[in-house]
Structure formats: structure tokens, C-alpha cells
Specification:
The protein is mostly helical and about 100 residues long. Helix 1 packs across helix 3. About 5% of the residues are buried.
């Protein structure tokens, strides 16, 4: 895996994880009963984005390590996925 591929993989995992973490323990203006005139009741009042970004970074790092290890050590390859689903690729040549 090249450095660019590793960085792109980490960025994708980080943003997907962040989108999952954002709504956890989110307190809206409607929940707190303090709706500012001109805004929706579902507007966030307490969001804790810095804490959620730190949690996301740690979780994404662990997930990235697992997925990168699977890719680097050829635990699962493209040919394996093809043989399970499509069976279009020729088998790997024996060395």
C-alpha cells in the first residue's frame, strides 16, 4: 500500500466515523427548551465537536490499522472477493 493510498483510506474511515459519532449525545435547542427565535428547534445547542473529533481520530486509527493490515498482509485479496461473488478473474499463477 502506497503512502497516498494509506492517507486516503484513513481520511475515508475518519469522515465515515465522524458522521456516525456526530449525532451521539447531541443536545438540541428543543431538548433544552431554549429555542432562539428564527432557528429550528432541532438546531444543536451543545455539540462537543472537539471531543467528538478526538474520539473519531482514535476510533479511525484503530479501524485503519485493522483494515491496512488486512490489505498489506493479503489476508483478503481482490481475487478472493471475486471468487466469492463473481468468479470472473483467472486463478493466481503458482510461483
Amino acid at each position: 500500500m502506497a503512502i497516498t493510498s494509506a492517507l486516503v483510506l484513513y481520511a475515508v474511515i475518519w469522515f465515515m466515523t465522524f458522521l456516525i459519532v456526530i449525532p451521539i449525545r447531541l443536545q438540541t435547542q428543543g431538548d433544552l427548551g431554549n429555542v432562539v427565535h428564527g432557528t429550528h428547534a432541532s438546531s444543536p445547542e451543545v455539540h462537543n465537536l472537539r471531543k467528538k473529533a478526538k474520539i473519531t481520530t482514535l476510533v479511525a486509527l484503530v479501524l485503519w490499522g485493522i483494515i491496512a493490515s488486512i490489505i498489506i498482509f493479503d489476508v483478503i485479496t481482490v481475487r478472493d472477493i471475486d471468487s466469492w461473488m463473481f468468479n470472473r478473474m483467472s486463478p493466481r499463477e503458482a510461483n
